[in-house]
Amino acid sequence: MSYGDPNNPYGQPQGQPGYPSQEQGYGAPQQGQPGYGYPQAPAVQQPYGAVPQTMPGTVSGARAMLWVIVGLQVVGAVIFALGAVGLNAAKNDESLKDDSSFQQLVDYSTGKLWALVVFAIAWGVFAAVLATKFNSGGNGVRVTLLVFGIITAVLGLYPFTLIGIVHLVLAILIACFVGGSKGKAWFNRPRY
C-alpha cells in the first residue's frame, strides 16, 4: 500500500480541505485550515458594542435639555418672586386692608410663593450640576439623571400641571436618552 497511489481507497485523499497534503506532512502546520480539538474563540469585544469616543447625539441632546430646564427654573423663580413681592405690596394697600379674606390669602400665598422660589432655584442648581457632569460622570450620574428625569416628570404632572408640560416633555426625553443603550455606553465607558 502506497499513500502516493491516487487510486488507493485507503490512502490519504488528495486535495480535500481539512487534511494535510503530502508536501506538508502530518506534523506541518496547516495554513487556513481548521484544526482538530476545540474551536477558536471569537474575538474579545467591548460590552455594548464599540466604546464611544465622542458624546452621542442623544446624550448631548439630554444635556442641552437639562440646560433648558435650568433656564426655565430661573424664569420660574423670577416669576414666583415677583408674584410674592406683588402680593406683599397689595397686602399693604389701604383699600384692601379691610378685606379679611384677601389678607388671609395674601399671608398664605406669599409664604408659598417664597417656598416655590427656593425650590425652583435649588432644582435649577441641581440640574446645572448634573449637566456639567456629563463628560466626567460615571454610571452613578446616569442613575441620578434617570431619577431626576422621573421626579421632574412627576412634578410636571401633579402640582404644576399647566406650567409643567414643558418640564414633563423634557424630563421624559432626558430619561429616555440617558437610559437608552447609547447613554449606557457613554456613562459606562472606560476613563483613562
UniProtKB/TrEMBL annotation:
Entry keyword annotation includes Transmembrane: yes
Region (Disordered): 1-39
Keywords associated with the record: Membrane, Transmembrane, Transmembrane helix
Superkingdom of origin organism: Bacteria
Transmembrane segments: 64-87, 113-132, 139-158
Listed name of the protein: Integral membrane protein
